[in-house]
Amino acid sequence: MSRSVVMASPVGRLELVEDAGALVAIRFDAAADGSPEHERGGSPLLVEVRRQLAAYFAGDLRVFELPLRPGGTDFQRRVWAVLATVPWGTTTTYGALAARLGLPPGASRAVGAANGANPIPVVLPCHRVIGADGTLTGYAGGMERKALLLRLEGVPTQADQGALF
């Protein structure tokens, strides 16, 4: 049985979804179902997810320690496993992720598509993947959120550095 809770964050309202003791999704632009429990409570796991996300947004947490079970294809899960190893405050490229997976350079588009299908953004840090030329590229949550998350981690963005990128 899945459970969810909504929390406010600097990137908007997030719906946190748990199923069978693992975090399975974080959804942007969530609407509460109207019940006070949906806003405040949840299972012990969802309480912990909220605590860790709040600490991350406050700048006090750099590594999430949560049970995750993102649903996707085998290829997507392989990409997300590598994505999970990209450290806080750093960026990588789609091509670099493809290379780490032992894929040819042309596989960066497939890696990008898998990245875009990430069901657990922020915790699985797809916002840390940028274009080969250093520009911010697509983000399912929107480019403003991607830039905000990177700035929160101390990574300058094009808006911060102008012609640097």
Quick overview of this protein structure:
The protein is of the alpha+beta class. It is about 35% helix and about 15% strand.
Query: How far apart are the first and last residues' alpha carbons, in Å?
Result: 46 Å
Percentage of residues assigned to helices? 25-40%
Shape descriptor: globular
| Parts with pLDDT < 50 across at least 5 consecutive residues | 161-165
Strand line-up in the sheet with most strands: 1-2-3
The helix tally amounts to 7
Estimate the strand proportion. 5-15%
Elements, N to C (H/E): EEEHHHEHHEHH
Name the average pLDDT: 89
Count of extended strands: 5
- Rg for CA atoms: 16 Å
The major sheet is characterized as: 3 strands, antiparallel
Would you tell me the structural class of the helices and strands? alpha+beta
Structural summary, described in words:
There is one protein chain. β2 and β3 form a beta hairpin. α4 packs across α5. The chain is α+β, with helices and mostly antiparallel strands and 165 residues long. 36% of the residues lie in helices and 13% in strands. A 3-stranded antiparallel β-sheet has the order 1-2-3. The C terminus is likely disordered.
Features:
7 helices; 36% helix; disordered C terminus; 165 residues; two-stranded parallel ribbon
Task: List strands and helices in order, with pairings.
Elements: E1 2-7, E2 14-19, E3 22-27, H1 36-40, H2 44-57, H3 74-83, E4 92-93, H4 94-100, H5 108-116, E5 129-130, H6 143-152, H7 158-161
Parallel strand pairs: 4-5
Antiparallel strand pairs: 1-2, 2-3
